[in-house]
Design brief:
With 407 residues, this protein is an alpha+beta fold. The chain folds into three domains: 122 residues, Gcn5-related N-acetyltransferase (GNAT) (Aminopeptidase, 3-Layer(aba) Sandwich), CATH 3.40.630; 153 residues, Gcn5-related N-acetyltransferase (GNAT) (Aminopeptidase, 3-Layer(aba) Sandwich), CATH 3.40.630; 93 residues, SCP2 sterol-binding domain (Nonspecific Lipid-transfer Protein, Chain A, 2-Layer Sandwich), CATH 3.30.1050.10. Helix content is 27%, strand content 32%. It contains eleven helices and 17 strands. The strands form two sheets. The protein has a twelve-stranded mixed beta sheet with strand order 1-2-3-4-5-12-6-11-10-9-8-7, with helices on both faces. The protein has a five-stranded mixed beta sheet with strand order 15-14-13-16-17. Helix 6 links the parallel strand 10 and strand 11. Helix 2 runs antiparallel to helix 5. The radius of gyration is 23 Å and the shape is globular. The protein starts with 5 loop residues before the first strand and ends in a 12-residue tail after the last helix. Bound molecules: acetyl coenzyme *A. The site of acetyl coenzyme *A has 22 residues, from strand 4 and helix 3.
Length: 407
Amino acid sequence: MSTSDLVLRRATESDWDDIIAADARAFAFIRPLDDDARADVQHKVLDSDVVVVRDHSDPHNTPLVGVAMFYRMTMTLPGGRRVMVPGLSWVSVAATHRRRGILRMMLTELTEQWEREGASFAILTASEGTIYERFGFGPATFEKQISVELARSVMRGEHPADSRVRFGTDEQIHQQVPELHDRWAATRSGAIARTQPWWNQIFADRPMLRDGRSRLHYLLHSGGYASYRIAHIGDDAVAEVSEMFTVSEEAHTDLWRVLLGLDLIGRLTATVPTDDPLAAKLTNLRAVSVTGIADAMWLRIFDVPAALGAREYAGDLDAVLEITDGFRGHGGRFAVHIAGGEATVTTTDAPPTLSMDISVFGSIFLGGYRATELEFAGRVWAADPETLVAFDTAFATDRAPFSGTFF
Ligand SMILES: CC(=O)SCCNC(=O)CCNC(=O)[C@H](O)C(C)(C)COP(=O)(O)OP(=O)(O)OC[C@H]1O[C@@H](n2cnc3c(N)ncnc32)[C@H](O)[C@@H]1OP(=O)(O)O
């Protein structure tokens, strides 16, 4: 096989059997998606946003050796503006064809499309931490996995006489959950909004994806919701919170109070924002163990001035920002003036006062990393401590960014 035998094109319906089989192999699934689960995915993506690579070295057998696609998503920026973003997903290359440049080929094709369409950002959730920095992506939102021991969990404060939480009927869930999620998404940097095909897939709750666990149960509150499943692990029943999104601390407290009161459950697991306050709401903080902190969403910036102009800021800054971009050349030197929460940006030849790779800028942009932390790591250069502190303060967010949707 030579590189010229590799043919990249957009997907058609006839590619999907191979896409599903390739995905199951590449991500080590026990079995490929069934027809229902496959239809859910196909409803979320346009075939023209899916690239496939086939090996034509044998004209009688042209196996699919690469696939990559993107969803058209909406992300919330610090300050509340929402932007359209391509969300890269379903990237895989056949084990027989690895490290021959197929991923690079597919990402170059998709990136050129995003640039033509005027995207300022792209996002992804990564299978490994070592793949995407070379393409200018940086880890931008993080999440915390917690395990809560119910026997030791007592909420501080008074128990309300009448719980404001109810189990939702199917009709209530379909009516209220998308609206509650959207209200939450408007408040959080990095939040991904969900369109109807995403909700259809979540509400379908396909048995093949439950892995032997119960269906989803929904708890509703006027300021948020939580969904959870029951898993039996050995002799223990564990409640796995699938998601919780709230727009008020009252809703967060009330929903947790109900979850912590589940009978015949020893332990509860959840994935929450890194600044989730549950442990501080309990009389015994040790009831909550943090079992992991992981990168969730990675961000790539394509248009530095447009990105800077789209978010709001927590402090003032005057700096000459130098950005390097080895993959697509969107770096340069920018005079950045931030005042009253808004940035104005022009290109300049003046000497830089701040310098970093575009992947590092992506990590700082939503507030997921503090600039000072990355300066300690030698990945941000600042001409003087005052500029670093002003940069750090300007880009900090009051709540930790959280994407809330895996894709
Ligand atoms: C957004 C998402 O969908 S994340 C999911 C990614 N997919 C998976 O993890 C499924 C299993 N893995 C795979 O299918 C493949 O190994 C892939 C897609 C990760 C890589 O595909 P390949 O075609 O082998 O990558 P390709 O040859 O184009 O490599 C491009 C560059 O990435 C590097 N690279 C590729 N995979 C890895 C890896 N797992 N770890 C570190 N570096 C990697 C290569 O060394 C190369 O670097 P260079 O261009 O700087 O020399």
